[in-house]
Design a protein that fits this description.
The chain is built from seven helices and 15 strands. Helix 4 runs antiparallel to helix 5. About 25% of the residues are buried. The radius of gyration is 29 Å and the shape is elongated. The strands form four sheets. The protein has a six-stranded mixed sheet with strand order 5-6-9-12-14-15, covered by helices on one side. Strands 1-2-3-4 form a four-stranded antiparallel sheet. It has a three-stranded antiparallel sheet with strand order 7-8-13, with helices on one face. Strand 5, helix 7 and strand 6 form a beta-alpha-beta unit. The chain folds into three domains: about 90 residues, Double Stranded RNA Binding Domain (2-Layer Sandwich); about 50 residues, no CATH class; about 130 residues, 3-Layer(aba) Sandwich (Rossmann fold), CATH 3.40.50.880. With about 280 residues, it is an alpha+beta fold.
């Protein structure tokens, strides 16, 4: 017959060659779990919809006996009311539909795998795991702000845009860059415009490789380049550097230079873009 656990027995019970569960007679369903290593933890066992369930409360001595009984009582009370705490805990840990990791997985399955070669898919997944998921895992996509994007390592103060040439998005990117500076987000803003069916693979050392069918445009604007950027007024800038990298080319985002890039200068006057070189 099981006995009520005491602080002394919790400390005194020796580990064996296999994992053990010691019932607490004072609170049926509450167990002390002892691993062969000697590690101790608390758990609750119950049945839900006819199926056995286990709900882990936490480790000992971080949670003492009295606290464990209070937690176990709360769990068993929810069970008595028709709840399933173990299921609820599992669901809480699962990626939510609008979490970044869930959206990233959808991007790989629905877009990347359908539009790219296996090697490109593999590299995209690697870069997400290495650089982005550790930073944003668990965050909801609607909570990720422009500042968060600007602070991604290797892309500090860099705004990105897609379908760049096909949808003539140079003007939009220049406005966003100017606004970033005018609103005080940065003294230097950078832009990355990527064509359709094209990707830029950024490695940890700052080297960016352009793959796919089109080009990537790397733009840089300083505070001195912004002449007029105000609500109700057309944008006017000084000369802005634009480096266009073809597919198969590379670019160093650390130095913001690329040996394979075609270097150009554009200027915006009252909203009109002019290529100066």
């Amino acid at each position: 017959m099981s006995k009520a656990l005491t602080v002394r027995t919790v400390e005194a019970i020796k580990p064996g060659p296999v994992r053990r569960e010691i019932p607490d007679a004072l609170l049926p369903g509450h167990y002390l779990v002892i691993q062969p290593s000697g590690a101790r933890s608390w758990a609750v066992r119950y049945r839900s919809s006819g199926r056995p369930r286990k709900h882990t409360l936490g480790s000992y001595p971080a949670i003492d006996l009295a606290s464990a009984r209070k937690l176990a009582s709360a769990v068993l009370r929810k069970v008595a009311e028709g709840g399933d705490p173990a299921r609820d805990k599992k669901h809480a840990r699962a990626p939510k539909a609008d979490s970044f990791e869930s959206i990233a997985a959808q991007f790989i399955e629905r877009h990347c795998k359908r539009a790219n070669r296996p090697r490109t898919v593999e590299e995209t997944e690697r870069l997400l795991r290495l650089h982005v998921l550790p930073r944003w895992r668990g965050r909801m996509v609607h909570d990720i702000s422009r500042r968060d994007v600007l602070e991604v390592p290797g892309l500090h103060h860099t705004l990105t845009d897609s379908h760049f040439t096909e949808r003539d998005r140079l003007g939009r990117s220049l406005v966003f860059m100017a606004r970033t500076i005018a609103d005080g987000w940065a003294d230097v803003a950078r832009g990355l415009g990527i064509d359709e069916d094209t990707a830029v693979l950024l490695d940890a050392d700052g080297s960016a490789a352009v793959i796919g069918q089109g080009t990537a445009s790397f733009m840089r604007m300083t505070a001195d380049d912004v002449v007029t950027c105000a609500h109700g007024e057309s944008l006017t800038t000084g000369p802005v550097d634009v480096s266009i990298v073809p597919r198969g080319g590379s670019f160093d985002v650390g130095s913001w230079q690329g040996d394979t890039a075609d270097h150009h200068v554009v200027r915006v006057t009252a909203g009109e873009i002019a290529w100066e070189s």
